[in-house]
Write a structure and sequence with these properties.
heterodimer; A: 268 residues; mainly alpha
Chain lengths: 268, 232
């Protein structure tokens, strides 16, 4: 059943993401061929004849490209909220919660598909930059960067970076889901209540996080603050601690949202 | 035969508001039951409790011997009093959706009913009127070969001609050992198809009888008895 939920969740969200992904690549390509950075950025060309129709096109197309990137990030964020709020806690919840499916499966399917879109949006934005610029050059630069990072931090940290990003994103998404679930317990002003709940969860998390880092991370933070050149293994340990903390807080949010959807469901 | 649905001391409160109070019910298989009561009498709360959309404050519900959960959701076909269909799907997509999630969904039946009502499966739900959406929803619900159909105000929003069609659809599409519970306050329209009636008033069951019993004992129609019991 989880597989089926994932399939429909992907289908329901894909129709929002694919058009904007295509548009980003399209405008990256357009910009690549009319090459705005050389022209717009070059002060010499901004003369009277520089303000030609072509120049205006260049400025417009690069502006559209950046607007699309901002829109993609904003849309990813909005859809994370909207899918949970509308599909589970709105009228569509009457269908979703009468399917022979456990509430945790709804939460997990929405979480996994949200993560998928975050990763895809990231890949699309980065690769559109590759399309826009001279690809081989950028690949080389990226290679150098990765090489330098490996030399300094070691392989562990390089593997740890995407994991910590995914755990961090999951923690954020679960906080949003939990806040929306808490907000829906109220009979009126549910969106406002969700917003207040989010701030409340955030504040509690900060307190828990600070205590956690002070006790657990004291062993790491203290030598780290004293070291002139930080030891990579200390940095690894610190990141691991933060990943662990995020995983813990994310799980707490999951448990809370799951209890609410199981026992306190209160659709309008 | 054992009962399909049983409630013991079922109570649901929302804060200080009592929605249902100590409801005890036994409903057998193969019946068409009218759950009748004025607005805000607890009909929808009862149906939502049966669907696990609400959790009882006290007491329990058993459907085919199971508490509401995954097993009962497979057995119960529920028509809520609102539209739960998203508007970006086509009718054919939502049929696929039902087929995927419900083992007892019969797509041929759904396509057959859509054809009779002249609804094109390729139409998007977005382009449909509220009444057409309600018909699509009823078709989906009645195309499941379920044990229990819970229909919350199925005829509230449609015109009288469509009402007859809907009642015919209900009558001709449920299995013989299945039970249909219809909640409504439009009694005269559905009286002719009911086997049993349950009167519910301010969260309590005030009467549970067969339609024949009512006619024999009081010599009144269900509608007339309803007006008497619920006189304002």
């Amino acid at each position: 059943m989880l597989g089926k939920l994932l399939k429909y969740e992907a289908k329901a969200t894909a129709r929002s993401f694919f058009p904007i992904y295509i548009a980003i690549f399209l405008f990256a390509l357009i910009n690549r061929f009319i090459n705005p950075f050389n022209q717009v950025g070059d002060s010499v060309s901004v003369t009277v004849e520089g303000f030609s129709f072509l120049n205006m096109m260049r400025i417009a197309s690069i502006a559209v490209y950046f607007a699309l990137i901002v829109a993609t990030i904003a849309m990813t964020f909005v859809i994370i909220i909207q899918r949970f709020y509308k599909n589970l806690l709105g009228d569509e919840g009457y269908l979703m919660f009468t399917l022979p499916v456990k509430p945790w499966q709804h939460i997990v399917s929405k979480l996994l598909i949200s993560l998928m879109w975050i990763v895809l949006s990231f890949i699309v934005i980065v690769s559109s930059v590759l399309v826009l610029t001279k690809m081989d050059n950028l690949f080389g630069e990226l290679g150098n960067l990765i090489h330098e990072a490996r030399r300094f931090f070691g392989d562990t940290l390089l593997i740890l970076a995407p994991i910590s990003a995914l755990v961090g994103a999951s923690y954020f998404i679960m906080t949003v889901y939990n806040a929306l679930s808490i907000g829906h317990l109220f009979n009126k002003h549910r969106i406002l209540a969700s917003f207040v709940a989010y701030i409340g969860i955030y504040m509690v998390s900060q307190v828990v996080g600070t205590i956690f880092l002070l006790t657990m991370g004291g062993i790491i933070l203290e030598p780290l603050s004293r070291a002139a050149v930080p030891d990579p293994s200390l940095i690894t340990a610190l990141i691991l601690t933060i990943v662990g903390l995020n995983a813990l807080l994310g799980t707490a949010n999951f448990v809370s949202a799951n209890i609410i959807l199981n026992k306190r469901l209160n659709l309008e | 035969m054992s009962n399909l649905l049983e409630c013991k001391d079922l109570t649901k409160t929302f804060g200080s508001t009592i929605a249902l109070m100590n409801v005890n019910l036994e409903i057998a298989r193969g019946r068409i039951v009218g759950l009748l009561g004025p607005n805000a009498s607890g009909k929808t709360t009862f149906i939502k409790l049966c669907n696990e959309l609400l959790t009882p404050t006290r007491g329990e519900i058993l459907i085919g011997g199971h508490k509401p959960g995954i097993t009962t959701k497979g057995m119960v076909s529920y028509l809520p009093e609102r539209t739960y269909l998203n508007d970006w799907m086509r009718v054919s997509d939502i049929i696929e959706f039902f087929k995927d999630f419900y083992d007892n969904f019969n797509p041929e039946k759904a396509h057959d009913m859509l054809g009779k009502l002249g609804i094109n499966p390729k139409d998007r739900l977005k382009t449909m009127s509220k009444g057409t959406k309600e018909k699509v929803q009823l078709i989906l619900v009645m195309s499941r070969e379920a044990d229990l159909y819970l229909l919350d105000e199925p005829i509230g929003g449609v015109d009288p001609a469509a009402r007859d069609y809907i009642l015919d659809t209900i009558l001709s599409n449920y299995r013989e050992d299945a039970t249909v519970i219809i909640s409504t306050h439009l009694i005269s329209d559905i009286e002719k198809i009911l086997d049993d009636v349950i009167f519910i008033k301010e969260g309590q069951v005030v009467l549970q009888k067969t339609v024949d019993e009512i006619r024999e004992e009081s010599g009144k129609s269900v509608d007339a008895l309803f007006r008497e019991v619920f006189r304002c």
